[in-house]
Every structure is written in structure tokens, then in C-alpha cells.
Amino acid sequence: MDFSTICIHGSDKKYDSTGAISVPIFQSATFAHPAVGESTGFDYSRAQNPTREYLEETVARLEDGVAALAFSSGMAAVTTLMELFSPGDHIIASDDLYGGSIRLFHHISEKNGLSFDYVDTSDLDALKGLIKAQTKAVFIETPTNPMMHVTDIEAVAGLCRQHGLLLIVDNTFLTPYFQKPLLLGADVVLHSGTKYLGGHNDTLAGFLVVSDANLAEKLQFISKTIGACLSPFDSWLLIRGIKTLPLRLERQQETAIRITNWLKQQAQVEAVYYPGLPEHPGYEISRKQASGFGAMLSFKVDSAETARKILERVRIIQYAESLGGVESLITYPMLQTHADIPEEERTAKGIDDRLLRLSVGLESANDLIKDLSQALGGGN
Length: 380
Known about the structure:
Elements: H1 3-9, H2 50-62, E1 67-71, H3 74-82, E2 90-94, H4 99-109, E3 115-119, H5 124-129, E4 135-141, H6 153-163, E5 166-170, H7 175-178, E6 188-192, E7 206-210, H8 213-226, H9 232-242, H10 245-263, E8 269-273, H11 283-289, E9 296-301, H12 304-313, E10 318-319, E11 329-331, H13 343-348, E12 355-359, H14 365-375
Parallel strand pairs: 2-3, 2-4, 4-5, 5-6, 10-11
Antiparallel strand pairs: 1-7, 6-7, 8-9, 9-12, 11-12
Helix pairs in contact: 2-9, 3-4
């Protein structure tokens, strides 16, 4: 079945006999048993709820996984994932990773006995050099947030298989519409469903999708025990958002490419980071492993004053944290997504007071370019 058809029709399961086109919202915390020792398949919504089950089966099909789990946020999904590991375990992660994940690793996971090394995961030799007896997993984000580095998923998956490691891929930026890490050898795919899957900046959600039934069973037990599950209503919002995922991404990518090419021509813009640029170091890998380049880009301007001027003067684009929605958002990573990372580390990665990240929405490309132009001081 075509991807776009799965987005619309999701799971094959039917939960009522009314003929309702929209999946019902089963706003119930608990479910009655037909008799002693019998169950409808649903007992308590922390364990499973029909609306959430429909969503999870939809996302699993989109990612070509055996199972998906939906959480109350992307960070709830990462937190649950970390419970697969035990004190003393070692994890290698991309050195340009979403700041919230790094915050969790530093302040929670390390306290619980895990250790981490960070590396440019596009450098296979450097990655291989960090593997030791205690290493249990490699955690990558590709493209990375916010510097848009690209990692060869298939190559890293091969290395992980050689050493018996789990490969975890944050696929938030490209979604299964543009990239399917499980088909490239990953074991776990992570999403902040708040972003493109939801697509409307109106709810929080997170997902884990796995390629192995035993791993799915372990995560389902942890999820049920921790209890950070997605609510029925939020599950319904994600079901609704996914229906338009292909249309949104195609349009957003088209606009992102136009904006990227325009930014390259501006005197006050010193660098543009977007995997769809032929000069991008990860361009060929992106073409090999993904069917699109997405709608996220970062750019560096000539001064901190210019960066702040843009943030304060944009009118259509909104200065706000997050990404992937129908509204275009511009972010200042050093003060927002990566504020908890020490300044020296941020600067070494290029995340300084001149870097801006742009999530391209569904507004007119012409209007967005005009907005950036006036914000740079080029008039209305």
C-alpha cells in the first residue's frame, strides 16, 4: 500500500459499528471485563487504549516496523528507551544532538550509571574507535540538530551488527516519508511526534518504532511501568495530523529549497546549512538513504546583532522553539534548544550567537522571503 494511503487509513482495526470515518476518541481510563478472566483486549489506558493503538499501528506501518509505542512527548520516549540499559553500560551518541537529549543523558542517565561518548557519527573510524566492551548502543540523529550533519545509517548499522550494538536513529527531521532507518539496518527509530507527525504545533507526542518483536515487548513493559503514555485525545490529534504528512512535507521542502537559495545570496548571511545543497558534505549520502531533504535549515549571519535583529523583526515567521508545524518558526539554538550545553562545547560545534535555525512552514514562499528580507533590513 502506498505511503500516502497508509497516512489516511492507518490501521486496519475497527473499533465501533457506527461507520464513523474518524477514529473514535476512547476517552476512558479503564475498561470493563466481560467476565472473570476475560478481557476486551483493553484493561487500563496506561497499558493500552484503542485510539492510541490505532495510532501506534499506523506509525509502525509508516516506518516498516513491527511495533510502535506512543508517548506523552519525545523526551518521554527517550527516557523510556534509556531504561533498556543498566548501570555500567556505555552509549555512543552524535556530538551534534538535540539539546534535550544531551540534557537527559548528562543529568539523568549518567546519574543512573550510564556513560556516554559523543562523536561525529559521519566519521565511521572515529565512531569505531570509541567502541569498548561496555558499549551497548549507538544513538544518532541525521540530519543533526541544528548543524544538519548527515550520517550514513547503513554504514553505522553494519558496524553495530559487527559489535552486537543497538542502533537508535532519531528520525524527527525527515520522518518516514523521506527516510526509513529500520530498512537501512537501525533497531530503534525515535520521533518527537510534536513536530512533523503532528504537524500543527498543537500537541506534544513521542514515538519509538522497533524492528524486533522481543525488543518491542521489553519496551512495552517499560512503557506500561513508567506510564508516560500518550492520551487518547492527543493520539487522535496525531492521527489527524499524519493524514496530511506527505502533502505538508512536499510543500515545506519546496519552500525550504527556495529560501535556502535566497539566503545564500544575502551579504549578511555567511553560511547556510541544508542537506539539499549540492555543496553540503552529506549531500550524496542524503540522496542515497533518503527520498527528500526536509524543511529544516540553519544559517549563520555576520554578527550577533544581525541574528537578534532578525529574531525581533520577523512578522510572519515566529520566534519560537520547536519545529515541523504548518507555521514557520525561527529558533536561536544557543538560548533555546541548546542552552544547557556548556558554551565552550556549543561554540566548538558552531552553535554560537550568530546561528539561527529555521523550520519552514506552509506559508507562501514569497511571503517568507519578503519577511526575512525586511528583517535583515532590506525593506518590506
